[in-house]
Amino acid sequence: MSAASASDVTSVVSGQQPGLSHVAIIMDGNGRWAKSRGLPRAAGHERGVEALRRTVEAAGELGIRYLTVFSFSTENWRRPAAEVNALFGLLKAYVQRDLARLTQEGVRIRIIGLRDGLPDDVAALVEKAERETAANSKFFLTIAFNYGGREEIARAARGVAEAVASGRLKPDDVNEKSFAGFLDTGSMPDPDLLIRTSGEYRLSNFLLWQCAYSELVFMDVLWPDFDRACLEEALAKFHERERRFGTVSPGAA
Ligand code: IPE
Ligand code: IPE
Ligand code: MG
């Protein structure tokens, strides 16, 4: 059975997504995109930023409220220093160039991941972006940078341990809901849809806790080629799915 009823289809067309407020994307394939053109990997990352701009715009137009993108993993430090530096430079350039416009458009920016280890200038810019957009609530753009799901869960566990040790939290009050509040995603809803580009079928340590019940869509397109049509294709796949959350289909008894 399709999850979308006839009336849902109308609202999808008019820019609302029933049952879909949060899309998360593993933006993968920049290196292969560049290699296939005989270009340096950094050129693929640059074109990847343009794909991100297109996607933020399309997501807003299509009625998505939360977009979370994986931009640098805790494992990506294993790449050559020049590539790591290029990726840090691109995050800075993106925030510097787009912050004023995003602020004006009502976008709230959040960066999730480990702040320790970020160069001072990047950390300062990230804090500025979060501060300047803190009052916005039209669209929530979250950039996972220096992010790893296991690191985030371990850090949340440390936060819980500290809260219990100081008496602010009782051991009996540690549960899924209170624990989730210690994660970087805080009170954000879990992703309804997780997209990974580039034909890889893995999570690579992204949002391990939050994606427990997300619908997964894997696409062959390389991230620099991703556009509104690709996003619409993923949304259409989402609307074909039936989310059961452990229960049975209505009428299945
Ligand atoms: C995604 O593209 C960007 C980052 C991981 C930072 P890749 O750089 O992983 O591209 P491929 O997977 O090598 O093609
Ligand atoms: C995941 O992609 C990280 C980001 C997209 C930022 P990778 O390209 O680093 O993942 P693996 O190494 O192929 O699993
Ligand atoms: Mg990759």
Offer a few descriptive terms.
globular; 8 helices; Undecaprenyl pyrophosphate synthetase; 253 residues; binds 3-methylbut-3-enyl trihydrogen diphosphate; alpha/beta; binds magnesium ion; six-stranded parallel beta sheet; 6 strands
Brief summary:
With about 250 residues, the protein is an alpha/beta fold. It has eight helices and six strands; from the N terminus they run αβααβαβαβααββα. The longest helix has 24 residues, at about 80-105.
First and last CA, distance = 14 Å
Give me the strand/helix succession: HEHHEHEHEHHEEH
| Low-confidence region ranges | 1-11
CATH class: Alpha Beta
- Beta strand %: 5-15%
Q: Which molecules are bound in this entry? A: 3-methylbut-3-enyl trihydrogen diphosphate, magnesium ion
Within the CATH hierarchy, at the fold level, what is the topology?
Undecaprenyl pyrophosphate synthetase
Q: What is the count of distinct domains?
A: 1
The helicity comes to 40-55%
> How many strands?
6
Strand order of the largest sheet: 3-4-2-1-5-6
What class, by secondary structure content? alpha/beta
> Can you tell me the CATH architecture?
3-Layer(aba) Sandwich
Question: Can you say what the CATH homologous superfamily is?
Answer: Decaprenyl diphosphate synthase-like
